[in-house]
Design goal:
There is one protein chain. By secondary structure, the chain is α+β, with helices and mostly antiparallel strands. The protein has two domains: about 10-195, Fructose-1,6-Bisphosphatase, subunit A, domain 1 (Fructose-1,6-Bisphosphatase, Chain A, domain 1, 2-Layer Sandwich), CATH 3.30.540.10; about 205-350, D-Maltodextrin-Binding Protein, domain 2, CATH 3.40.190.80. The protein is about 30% helix and about 25% strand. The protein is built from seven helices and 19 strands. The strands form five sheets. It has an eight-stranded mixed beta sheet with strand order 4-3-5-6-7-8-9-10, sandwiched between helices. Strand 11 (about 205), helix 4 and strand 12 form a beta-alpha-beta unit. Helix 4 crosses helix 7 (about 320-335). The longest helix is centred in the first third of the chain and has 23 residues, at about 20-40. Bound molecules: 2,5-anhydro-1,6-di-O-phosphono-D-mannitol and magnesium ion. Magnesium ion binds near residues 118, 247 and 281.
């Protein structure tokens, strides 16, 4: 007998999400559906002769050239969230300052941080991209200042991402497990297909942009060297490597079958102590992965405990299978204490520390 499929709306009613949080998450789901519909058309032009591919001449606050789709997705997210009447303020990767929302109903109880389009460099090559979001309770006051947005990730009330791949999925947590929904093209609904996702504690698969190796700190050089040495090295097992370059897709793989994703601290640009942003990339992914039994760290502390200093702050991230994350934290601790042993980079004779 065909099993009854649970929609996102019914799931949120049945779980302990408050009515307002359920409404907010459904609005995010709708925004994701709208983006999904756009990505399906790729380079096919609309009636006005436009398509979603290509770059604009503009830069965002991060100094990155915006993709056409970055700006479209930002508008979709901003207007969908504002229309709920439940959001007091929001922060987008694409916008310098927090966006205050006029509270006409006195019901605006949330702050939402979002990366409307993660993995923009993958749009034109038709590789999976996504949207990431993080939800906090808003301080109850009028005229929020930027400092009111600086809340540690452990206080998130919900987090999630949409992934626009061969199928579109929405992965969410409200602090009671991590659950995956797949967009049904027929019914235009998100249906629960991956309840209670789990990240195995151990893994043999890692994801890192190795082209940055020369800029990494010693603990990361050591860890990756040992993974590459495989069964012949001190880890005594062969590792596999996967790197998509869209964090949503790399984290989705980890939530599906385990693994570890690293975007560590590097010395490439001293103004950037990491590549990814704390408030709308690292925090929401950390909550999702912790809720699935995994771990997320900067290498030196639990991600969700980091006290934010800036809404667009960058942070090193090591996320995924718990035992591997803890293994890497031990390497950082030993390095910081000066008790780490020198090691050779794989296939090199020089010893490092
Ligand atoms: P974006 O939000 O501007 O797309 O940047 C985030 C992306 C991540 O999805 C990905 O893991 C990382 O940047 C890749 O960066 P790089 O190619 O510079 O290593
Ligand atoms: Mg991003």
């Amino acid at each position: 007998m065909k099993k009854v499929q649970i929609s996102l709306e019914s799931f949120l009613q049945e779980t302990h999400a408050s009515e307002s949080l359920a409404t907010l998450l459904c609005a995010i789901a709708e925004a994701s559906q709208a983006i999904s519909a756009l990505t399906e058309n790729g380079a096919i032009e609309n009636k006005a002769g436009e398509n979603i591919y290509g770059k604009l001449n503009s830069e965002n606050v991060q100094g990155e050239t915006q993709a056409t789709l970055d700006v479209i997705c930002d508008k979709i997210f901003t207007s969908s969230l504002a229309a709920t009447g439940l959001v007091a303020g929001m922060v987008s990767e694409e916008v310098d300052l927090p966006i205050a929302v006029k509270d006409k109903t006195n019901k605006a109880e949330f702050l939402v941080f979002f990366d409307p389009l993660d993995g923009s460099s993958n749009v034109d090559v038709n590789v999976s991209i996504g949207s990431i979001f993080s939800v906090f309770k808003s301080p109850i006051k009028t005229d929020l200042s930027e400092a009111d947005y600086l809340i540690a990730g452990k206080q998130q009330v919900a987090a999630g991402y949409a992934i626009y791949g061969p199928c579109t999925m929405l992965i969410i947590t409200t602090g009671q497990g991590t659950h995956g929904f797949t967009l049904s093209r027929a019914s235009k609904q998100f249906l629960l297909t991956h309840p209670d996702m789990q990240v195995p504690a151990d893994t043999k698969e890692y994801a890192i942009n190795s082209s940055n190796q020369r800029y990494w700190e010693s603990p990361i050089k050591r860890y990756i060297t040992e993974c590459k040495a495989g069964a012949a090295g001190r880890r005594e097992k062969d590792f596999n490597m996967r790197w998509i370059g869209s964090m949503v897709a790399d984290v989705h793989r980890i939530l599906t079958r385990g693994g570890i994703y690293l975007y560590p601290k590097d010395s490439k640009d001293s103004a950037k102590p990491g590549r990814l942003r704390l408030m709308y990339e690292a925090n929401p992914m950390a909550m999702l992965v912790e809720q699935a039994g995994g771990a997320a760290s900067t290498g030196r502390m639990r991600m969700l405990d980091v006290p934010p200093e800036h809404i667009h702050q960058r942070i090193p991230i090591i996320i995924g299978s718990k035992n591997e994350v803890e293994h890497i934290e031990r390497y950082h601790a030993a390095f910081d204490k000066g008790t780490d042993e020198p090691f050779p980079l794989f296939n090199e004779r020089t010893f490092y520390r």
